[in-house]
């Protein structure tokens, strides 16, 4: 049986991440953030049942942003860690710790994976690499 208290907290967390994404980010980040909340809600021990939901929301945005270069001014969209922390009223160290926990939990890394934005997927430099007789070669090596 699904715990009604968990469903209530999950809905609150979804609203928190949606609010930030709609104000500062884009639909891609919103979908990925909501996907992470849903996955957290399916864990045997639901992590967001303890602690402040604002910290969880900040950690989710930070974790997804970290692997998608959200904090790099040369990428769009761009948001600073300070913006996330200020929006949620969270300390930067706490947000970073929660983000690290989430990245470890879901084995998140740069360039690919289930939490990569469409832009990150398209700009993935590893998309141009393939193996020829066990040697990694860039498709730039061959004439087109």
UniProtKB/TrEMBL annotation:
<dbReference type="Pfam" id="PF19935">
    <property type="entry name" value="DUF6398"/>
</dbReference>
<feature type="domain" description="DUF6398">
    <location>
        <begin position="13"/>
        <end position="116"/>
    </location>
</feature>
<protein>
    <recommendedName>
        <fullName>DUF6398 domain-containing protein</fullName>
    </recommendedName>
</protein>
<dbReference type="InterPro" id="IPR045651">
    <property type="entry name" value="DUF6398"/>
</dbReference>
């Amino acid at each position: 049986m699904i715990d009604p208290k968990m469903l209530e907290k999950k809905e609150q967390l979804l609203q928190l991440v949606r609010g930030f994404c709609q104000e500062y980010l884009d639909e891609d980040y919103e979908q990925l953030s909501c996907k992470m909340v849903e996955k957290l809600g399916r864990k045997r021990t639901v992590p967001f049942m303890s602690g402040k939901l604002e910290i969880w929301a900040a950690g989710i945005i930070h974790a997804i942003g970290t692997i998608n270069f959200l904090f790099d001014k040369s990428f769009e969209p761009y948001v600073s860690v300070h913006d996330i922390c200020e929006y949620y009223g969270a300390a930067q160290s706490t947000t970073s710790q929660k983000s690290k926990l989430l990245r470890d939990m879901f084995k998140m890394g740069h360039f690919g994976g289930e939490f990569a934005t469409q832009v990150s997927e398209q700009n993935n430099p590893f998309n141009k690499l393939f193996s020829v007789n066990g040697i990694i070669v860039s498709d730039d090596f061959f004439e087109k």
